[in-house]
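Field guide to reading this record: the first block holds the primary sequence, the second block holds the structure written as discrete tokens, and the final block holds curator observations. Each block starts with its own label. This record concerns CUB domain-containing protein, catalogued under organism Photinus pyralis.

BLOCK 1 — SEQUENCE
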Amino acid sequence: MCRNFVILLFFHICGCKELFDFRDKNRGSNCDVVFTSDSVKNGSITSPLYPSPYPGRTICRYEFQGRGKERVQILFQEFNLYHPRDDRDCDNQDILMAFVQIEGRMEKIDTFCGSTLPKPIMSNGPKLKLEFHAAYGSRYSRGFKATFSFIQNFGIKIGVQLPDYPCAFVFNSNETRDGYFYSPNYPGFYPRDTECYYFFHGNQGEKIHLHFSYFDVEGVFPCEAKSASDYVEFSNFVSQDRKYERHCGQLGEFDIDSDRRFFRVTFKSNDRLDGTGFNATYQFQDKVESFTTRSELSNKTAVMKDMTGLATIILFLVTEFLR
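BLOCK 2 — STRUCTURE
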């Protein structure tokens, strides 16, 4: 009786709509939790009884409801679910599933099991749901612990975010001449139905050099809509630039250079498949003009004169020999 009172008091204090049923240990524990951004912007979630082992035959649902442009991001601190065999798939194991809303219905985007710490999760809109299914349980399985946040920066903590765009960030040479940038929620799967812009503004006489050290954007070349491809696009203008082809798929390291002091990078995902995105560095560089100095021109002229003189001598010797 006292234990149940303490647990109910704890969940009243933390503001969680959660219910645990301990009346019959054989039935396990069932729980439902709803978090809204109106009441809390960030917090933590755990499996039942964490850090003690969770009971078997348990189903827990964790629902997150944000507002407007908000996205839900989940970051895991610990993950240890019962897995009876060393198997890469999650069949017949305790699992945690993630769902997002696509075209008005909740669709599963990933399933986690075993003891590998999941990468960050991000919703494609203001709603996200996690479902924990514990069929077995074990005295050696502590379950999971994670933090959640309702955010509007897509997990991108660099650059200056522009409020007039759903997802846009500015990098200015006056503030720093080099740095890094990455896709939303990197290194986790980027959210679906997302378009992000990265604007680079250099000073007069500068250009922008980009180096992509990691690139995993779902799609097939030439990365068009008819192949349902996500893509990254480059431009020297605010509008599209035909000079650069779209990039998608799993690519090795590569470099991109602008022609002028302004450059735009666009990341676009659809509502189908996911990738882990990209990680890149940027550098504002001084442009090197191609021109020939007076001294270089004089040296080239002297060399040409020497070669002309040598050719004349060779021609004379050949003529004398043939006589």
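BLOCK 3 — OBSERVATIONS
The first helix runs from residue 2 to 14.
Helices lie at 2-14, 294-322.
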